[in-house]
């Protein structure tokens, strides 16, 4: 038991990098698409922590090995879609990402259940889901 405790304490000295930025780039999805306030609120609450350059970390992000899991999760989320880099995407890539957003929301794949388990406010209610899907579909059709 002492060895486990010592190991747990020891891994606390291996910090993770923080995905935090104090600026919103000109390439941000919300800025370049003039997103309605209601859609903006839903997307920032349910998507931006894992899909932007600014994660609002919970208190437990300082505890290893949870912090490693969070860092890996955010890194992979940003590799798939980074809303802060939206304007840098080609129209083909934007179209693909919008299709993916629609599909994953319709199938209940996003936001991830593991995220909404602790961040209950990120879980999409039916009306929020429909609001986002309607707006994203219109945006996709306009490309």
Automatic annotation (TrEMBL):
Residues 5-140 form the Haem-binding domain. Pfam families: Haem_bd (PF14376). InterPro entries: Haem-bd. This is Heme-binding protein.
